[in-house]
Structures are given as structure tokens and as C-alpha cells.
């Protein structure tokens, strides 16, 4: 099996640690700093992480408490494991200051990254990237390799802050997201550890264990919340949407806007945002999804959300509100997710609220919904799946991209051209397709699935990878793009990797 290795130009410096820790630690040591400029005032959060110098020491809890990025740099060559998510404080359980104490969930200060542990080398890092694209839709920031597997880092652009004011709900939401990421990847990858601590100890990034690095692949906590909400919505409604539909004896349709939770949230004015918690943005998005799934027009929803926003003690800007509402009406979402409705209502209305308080109890009989080929309109996600499946089926190993016109492609898919234009742009933004349109008499469109192209890179011999990557980059004009950089890392002939052990237990 082919294996990727670390390129010579991949280096570790303070930037990678800063990018992961998100100002959760002081920049310089509080005392005895050798780097702090004269008169420097540190505005970073005064949190702590826990670090270990070997797997054996980690297994018995012997490590160090680190409270600054300067201290990380002083010890980076000696460290093997750490907690990439930061804690409020750290201390020692013995007089010799060797056994660390405080790395418990209730002591978390901020969520900086999601880490997936893969205890197998059946799938190499190229296949891991494909799985991330296919199952998650987001690219990983880092992939670390060990003797027995890999660790995948999804670093947050903006962290989730754990606060007493939010009743520590951020941890529950983050665990839900982390669990969903693992479950999604486990569908395609062997060895994904579903049971390890979501925010515990991870392998420390070193020059000799990083096999993929692109620090620009970072997504906000809000992005991950919305991703999880979409997935939750799709999963909850998939069976009902695709197979059967509830019909009530009184022939009355129960809409989300008719349920108690909707009125509860709609008339709350003390909802705020910030610090990575479920707040104004999520409430407006959820209410808008309820309007959308209940059949209300976009302008009606916008008017009502403007009215709601004006009542808030800290309203959003008009531009931000419009963006949220139109995202809800994009066709990418089915309905507001029950799980997130419960989280929002317990946070902003009352922590004692239960399912029976929030939702109308549905009683009735079931009938099968029309199959897709009998429906007048197809959901946007179905169109996307059709296009990706078509590209996968028609692409050849020798020529992994198609050359045709938009009109021909729309005809092949029996898809309206306007719909095709919309989903092409969205799939390109999601890094799932490349396409390039040329005008004129001999013009047309070149299009390919990113997954197909990555898969082709993995299959090629080392000697042919660079030529292939260069050709793809030129065909689609990918110079200076993040995806082009990913191709470069996957395609450049690489030096052998010195392997190190991956953690197997979590002392937190």
C-alpha cells in the first residue's frame, strides 16, 4: 500500500501552536521569561494545558502544566503528547510536582480543535483526506502519523468558549459535533476510535510526525454547529422524507411554527451571542428553518425575523440577519433539528424544559411518500448527489475530468440550467468539484470531482504524481489555492517518515 510522508518544507514553529491554542495561554511566561519584550502587556487568556514527555509517563499521569506559548517552545523537542484544548487551571497532585491534576471536562476553558483518533493504518493519509471531503465536507488541518495509526486535527478558526453563563452548554454541543465527525468518518475508514475522550490527550505535533498540514483549513465553531444541525436535520427526517409521511386522522398538518418551542423562542429578548455558544445567530437560523419547513415565503420570514431582531437587547446587523435567513432558505436544510431546539430552549427559556413541553405529540397513521421520480421537484442535495455520481461514473483513469458544455451536462442530468449553475458554485465552494468555463465558438466546460482527482493521485506511482498534479493545476487554474496546496502535498515525492507512537489511553 502506498504511504505519504512528510515533505522537507514542513516545519514546526510557534505559529502552529498559536493557531491551535487560540490565545488560550499567555504568550510569554509569567515569571523568568527570556522572550517577553520590555513593557509587554499580555492580553491572552490565562489558561493551562497539560503535556507529557513520553507515552509511558502519560500512562501514569506524570507530566507538566504549561501556561504559556513560550514554555511550549522551550519544551517542544521533549514533548510527545498534550491537551490541545485549554483548561482554566492546572496543578500537581504530589509534592514533587510530577503528577498533573485538573485535566477534567468540567475544568475546560475553551474548545480549540476536534481530534479523531484512528487506530489503524489500513487507510493512509490520502484516503483519510478523501473521507473527510466525502463524509464531513471539511478538510482536516493536520494529520499526524504514528506506528499504529493516525490522528486527524480539525482546528477551529474561532474557539468555543466554555462559560458558567451558558451553563457549560458549549461542551455538550462540542461533544455532539465531535461524535458526529467520528461517526461520519467511521463509515469510510477503519479503526476510528469512537469511545475515547473527546477533549483529552492527543499526540503533540512534531516535524517527524506530521504527514499533512494546511493551517488555512480552519472553520469556526459556528460553522461546525450549523454543519451538525444540518446533518442532524437530514438524519432525523431522512426516513420520513424519502420513505413515508405521517398523516393525521383529522387531516391537520402539524407545522414547526405551530409548536410551543417556536413561540417560546420568538418572544425572548435576552438572547445574546459570542464566545462560541448557541446564541442569536442560531436562534434566528432555527426560527427561519421553521418558517421554511412550514411553507412560508422568504419575504415573510425576513419581515418576521427583522421584527424579532429589533426586540433583542443586542440585535444583529441587517446584513448578517439577511445572510442567516437566506442560508435557511437555501434548500440545503430540511427543517429545524429537535436536538438543537432543545439545547436553545433549555439555554434561553428554561433549563427544566422537556420534549413534551416543546413539541406537539404526533399521533396518526403513516403512508408512503411518492418516490423521487414521481415528485415534481427534487431537493437540492439530491441534485448535488446526482452530479457527483455522474462525474464519478463518467470519469476515466486516463482522463479524470469531463469536457462538455453546461447545456449538455444539464441535459444528461435532466436538471434545469439555473439549478445546475447554483449547485456548481456551491460544490466548488465546498471543495467537491473543480470546473472551468471557456467562452467563444470552441468554448465549453471542463469539470471534475475533487474526490476523483485525489483518488487518482493516491493510485499513481511516485514518479508520476508530480506531473499529474501539475497538469490538473494548469487545467483548472488552481495556482495559489488551498486545494492546489493540498494537491502539492499529496503529489510531491516525499522523504521517508520517522514514525513515533500514537497515544492509546487518555488519563483525563
Q: Could you write a compact summary of the structure shown?
A:
The chain has 508 residues and is an alpha+beta fold. It folds into three domains: 14-219, DNA primase, PRIM domain (Alpha-Beta Complex); 224-369, no CATH class; 380-491, Arc Repressor Mutant, subunit A.
Main structural class = alpha+beta
Which residue ranges are poorly predicted, with pLDDT under 50 across at least 5 consecutive positions? 1-11, 239-251, 364-369, 493-508
Overall geometry comes to globular
- Helical proportion, percent range: 25-40%
For the record, give the distance between the C-alpha atoms at the N and C termini, rounded to a whole number.
Answer: 35 Å
Mean pLDDT over the full residue set: 80
Strand content: 5-15%
The CATH architecture of the largest domain comes to Alpha-Beta Complex
Number of domains: 3
Number of helical stretches of at least 4 residues: 18
CATH class of the largest domain: Alpha Beta
Radius of gyration: 25 Å
**Could you please say which CATH topology of the largest domain applies here?**
DNA primase, PRIM domain
Largest sheet: 5 strands, antiparallel
Extended strand count: 16
Kindly report the spatial arrangement of strands forming the biggest sheet: 4-7-9-8-11
Amino acid at each position: 500500500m502506498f504511504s505519504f510522508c512528510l515533505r522537507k518544507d514542513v516545519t514546526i514553529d510557534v505559529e502552529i501552536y498559536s493557531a491551535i491554542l487560540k490565545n488560550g495561554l499567555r504568550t510569554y511566561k509569567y515569571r523568568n521569561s527570556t522572550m517577553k519584550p520590555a513593557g509587554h502587556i499580555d492580553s491572552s487568556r490565562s489558561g493551562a494545558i497539560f503535556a507529557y514527555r513520553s507515552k509511558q509517563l502519560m500512562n501514569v499521569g506524570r507530566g507538566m502544566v504549561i501556561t504559556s506559548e513560550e514554555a511550549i517552545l522551550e519544551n517542544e523537542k521533549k514533548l510527545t503528547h498534550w491537551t490541545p484544548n485549554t483548561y482554566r487551571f492546572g496543578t500537581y497532585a504530589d509534592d514533587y510536582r510530577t503528577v498533573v491534576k485538573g485535566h477534567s471536562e468540567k475544568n475546560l476553558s475553551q474548545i480549540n480543535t476536534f481530534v479523531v483518533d484512528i487506530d489503524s493504518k489500513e487507510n493512509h493519509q490520502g484516503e483519510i483526506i478523501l473521507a473527510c471531503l466525502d463524509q464531513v465536507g471539511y478538510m482536516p488541518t493536520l494529520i499526524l502519523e504514528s506506528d499504529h495509526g493516525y490522528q486527524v486535527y480539525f482546528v477551529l478558526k474561532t474557539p468555543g468558549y466554555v462559560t458558567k453563563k451558558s451553563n457549560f452548554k458549549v461542551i455538550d454541543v462540542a461533544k455532539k459535533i465531535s461524535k458526529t465527525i467520528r461517526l461520519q468518518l467511521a463509515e469510510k475508514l477503519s479503526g476510528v476510535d469512537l469511545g475515547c475522550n473527546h477533549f483529552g490527550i492527543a499526540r503533540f505535533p512534531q516535524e517527524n510526525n506530521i504527514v499533512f498540514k494546511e493551517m488555512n483549513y480552519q472553520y469556526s465553531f459556528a460553522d461546525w454547529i450549523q454543519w451538525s444541525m444540518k446533518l442532524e436535520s437530514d438524519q432525523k427526517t431522512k426516513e420520513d422524507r424519502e420513505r413515508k409521511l405521517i398523516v393525521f386522522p383529522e387531516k391537520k398538518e402539524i407545522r414547526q411554527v405551530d409548536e410551543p418551542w417556536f413561540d417560546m423562542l420568538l418572544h425572548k429578548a435576552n438572547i445574546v451571542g459570542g464566545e462560541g455558544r448557541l446564541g442569536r445567530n442560531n436562534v434566528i437560523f432555527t426560527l427561519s428553518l421553521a418558517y421554511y419547513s412550514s411553507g412560508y415565503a422568504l419575504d415573510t420570514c425576513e419581515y418576521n425575523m427583522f421584527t424579532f431582531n429589533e426586540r433583542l437587547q443586542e440585535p444583529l446587523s441587517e446584513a448578517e440577519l439577511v445572510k442567516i435567513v437566506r442560508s435557511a432558505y437555501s434548500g440545503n436544510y430540511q427543517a429545524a433539528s429537535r436536538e438543537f431546539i432543545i439545547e436553545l430552549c433549555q439555554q434561553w427559556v428554561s433549563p427544566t424544559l422537556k420534549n413534551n413541553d416543546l413539541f406537539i405529540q404526533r399521533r396518526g397513521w403513516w403512508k408512503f411518500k411518492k418516490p423521487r421520480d414521481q415528485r415534481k421537484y427534487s431537493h437540492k442535495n439530491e441534485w448535488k448527489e446526482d452530479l457527483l455520481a455522474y462525474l464519478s461514473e463518467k470519469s476515466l483513469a486516463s482522463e479524470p475530468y469531463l469536457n462538455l458544455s453546461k447545456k449538455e451536462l444539464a441535459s444528461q442530468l435532466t436538471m434545469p440550467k439555473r439549478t445546475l449553475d447554483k449547485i456548481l458554485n456551491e460544490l466548488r465552494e465546498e471543495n467537491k468539484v473543480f470546473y472551468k468555463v471557456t467562452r467563444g465558438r470552441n468554448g465549453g466546460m471542463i469539470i471534475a470531482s475533487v474526490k476523483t482527482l485525489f483518488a487518482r493521485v493516491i493510485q499513481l506511482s511516485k514518479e508520476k504524481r508530480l506531473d499529474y498534479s501539475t497538469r490538473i493545476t494548469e487545467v483548472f487554474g488552481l495556482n495559489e489555492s488551498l486545494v492546489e496546496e493540498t494537491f502539492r502535498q499529496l503529489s510531491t515525492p516525499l522523504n521517508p517518515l520517522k514514525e513515533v507512537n500514537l497515544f492509546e489511553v487518555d488519563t483525563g
